[in-house]
Amino acid sequence: MDNQIVIKTLNKLLQGQYMGVHSYEEFVNNLDDSSPLRNRFITIQKDLKHHADLLSERIQELDGKPATSEGIIGKMELFISQIFDQPHDEKDILKHAIKGENLYGIKMTEKLVQDKLDEKSLNLVHNILDKQREHVDYLKSELN
């Protein structure tokens, strides 16, 4: 497996983690301080930060330079969603979080990593995906 392909793929995943961190920051800011979801969303955000750290470490192990933000495209997507797709209540926030975790967090990751990672990197990504699936299960349980 070509290390440069692995590093490039891991960096794309890392940028996605940063997008998730910033999305959850927005969700937390839009939740009332008394909302029981607030602390759980902060915990999910901490998980995403931890995942970003793990991906950064793996990239460095491969002698690559980890991304430090969500990148230009990620920043633009976040900006546009803040303007046009702002959730207004807890139910909307939960729906946005589920969509983000499912579509961007899980499905795009599965597609992105296909045949592009070495075994150690793939194991790391599978562990991250397992945690993101737990997030989705929790969010769905709160929605119902």
From TrEMBL:
Coiled coil: none annotated. CDD domains: Ferritin_like (cd00657). It comes from the Bacteria. Residues 6-111 form the DUF2383 domain. This is DUF2383 domain-containing protein. It comes from Peribacillus deserti.
